[in-house]
Amino acid sequence: MHVPPEDADLTLPDSELIKRAQHGDQAAFAQIYDRYAQPLYRYIYFRVGDPDLAEDLQAEVFLRAFESLDRYEDRGWPLSAWLYRIARDRTVDVIRRSRLRQTVPLESWSGACEGPDHDVVMRLDCEELRRHLCDLTDDQRQVISLRFLADLSIQEVASRLGRSEGAVKALQHRGLQSLARRLVSGV
């Protein structure tokens, strides 16, 4: 991860960082990366379930953002909404192209004290949850992913998706209800 210089102003708003990055300030783009790299990685990872692929897609998101900085216009939406849209589009493209099938790699077992059974059960539970998440609407899936995987507050999710807090709460509620029904019924 990039370590900001000691004189970097970490409190600059995204809009100011974008303006500076558009004028060639590499440190400003590095701050954007530092601010959003981890949440974007978690968002992508939960959708693809493969850490290497998630890392590659995360890098593609920032590469595309960097390449299109000159065309970025502030339209009142948060910068994060733009980055998450790129991440979503790239992830959907990759999933559609490869029709990823989730597997449980046996070589990843590290001999944890719970034993291999625990690791396999945890992976299968995650796979089942991921499969049921795919049955939600895109909006519900995005809200659930940002709230519980990226560990964002209702306000942060609303800001990133350009929605009201009420809309985010409603999407979260309906998404969680749908997930609960599917997990209980085993559908």
Describe the structure.
There is one protein chain. This protein is an all-alpha fold. The chain folds into 2 domains: 10-101, RNA polymerase sigma factor, region 2, helix turn helix motif (Rna Polymerase Sigma Factor, Chain: A, Orthogonal Bundle); 111-187, Arc Repressor Mutant, subunit A (Orthogonal Bundle). The chain has 8 helices and no strands. The protein has helices spanning 14-22, 26-48, 51-67, 79-98, 116-133, 138-149, 154-161, 165-185. Helix 2 packs across helix 6 (138-149). Mean pLDDT is 78; it is low at 109-113.
Largest sheet: none
Uncertain spans: 109-113
Give the total of domains.
Answer: 2
CATH architecture of the largest domain: Orthogonal Bundle
| CATH fold naming of the largest domain | Rna Polymerase Sigma Factor, Chain: A
> What's the average pLDDT?
78
Q: Report the total helices.
A: 8
Strand content: under 5%
The count of DSSP E runs of length 2 or more, i.e. the number of strands, is: 0
Secondary structure: helix percent: 55-70%
CATH class of the largest domain, please? Mainly Alpha
In CATH terms, the superfamily of the largest domain is RNA polymerase sigma factor, region 2, helix turn helix motif
> Pairing-aware structural class of the strands and helices?
mainly alpha
Distance between the termini: 41 Å
Radius of gyration, taken over Cα atoms and rounded to an integer in Å: 18 Å
Assign an overall shape: globular
Query: What is the string of SSEs from the N terminus onward?
Result: HHHHHHHH
